[in-house]
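User: quick one - fold this with zinc ion bound?
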Amino acid sequence: MKFGHQKMPDMERTIILPPHIFEQMHAYAVASSGEISGWGKTKLVRKGGNLYVVVTEIRIFQQQINSVHTQLRDEDLTKFYLSLIKSKERHQDWNLWWHSHDTMSVFFSPTDTDTIEKISKRSKLYSICINKKAEFVGRYDRKGEHVQDTPILIRESTPNQEILDKCAEEVAKLVTVIPAPLPAVSFGYNVIDERVDAVERFLRSRRHFID
Ligand SMILES: [Zn+2]
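Assistant: Sure. Structure tokens for the protein plus zinc ion:
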């Protein structure tokens, strides 16, 4: 028993991709005739008990690719870090590695996981895999360990608490949770049909129903 050493579970992080950054990342994926890798700069925002990883900028760098798989070469990685140092960026802020899977489905392959382990050895790392169909998945790693799979939201910024509160108030006022209906057979008639009838009657009354 080692109570003193038990780690608190990690708070779930959500990656926020602002629409213009998402467009750019997808455009890089579309423009490349194979897979492509890039970096992203992030900002961690704590809000309403949630942790948001807001992507503020992305870049690509000189790289060699093939159509089968992106393998981030050490020398390409070193070149990228050197360019960050030259541009006086804090390289700790550039902690998002993203890559495309061309037209294949999105997931983190064993090669990706090796790359992630290598880059996150001494730090935090967020990763995104995207494809030409604009599908995407994300994950969060720390010190070479996979911490969690990370949902990705495409939105301008973190949720607005005022709007959340206002809508919650409206929902509380207008939406009532009723017990789920018992299977229709036990009543001897079809509940679903009756609901559809009600909708049709309503639409007819509004003259929106076309036979
Ligand atoms: Zn991959």
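One thing worth noting: The pocket of zinc ion is lined by residues 70, 99, 101, 109, 112, 129 (CB under 6 Å).
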